[in-house]
Specification:
It contains no helices and seven strands. A hairpin with a 2-residue loop joins β3 and β4. The N and C termini lie far apart (about 30 Å). The protein has one domain: OB fold (Dihydrolipoamide Acetyltransferase, E2P) (Beta Barrel). The chain is mainly β and about 70 residues long.
Amino acid sequence: MVGTFYRAAAPGDDPFVDLGSKINTGQTICILEAMKLMNEIESEFNAEIVEILVENGTPVEFGQVLMRVKQS
């Protein structure tokens, strides 16, 4: 296990993105907690979220696909 995937900044907060969300370069799309550090993962390009493959609070592995996007 590399870390834990979080869709929002805190429990009860709105998720950073949902299906169909339009995202911009540099926008936070999720948080990965690793060794008690919260790492904000930012988009590297403009895109649309077409699939979210991991449930909130789920352990994730190195190289695991978290979301599928359609680059715009």
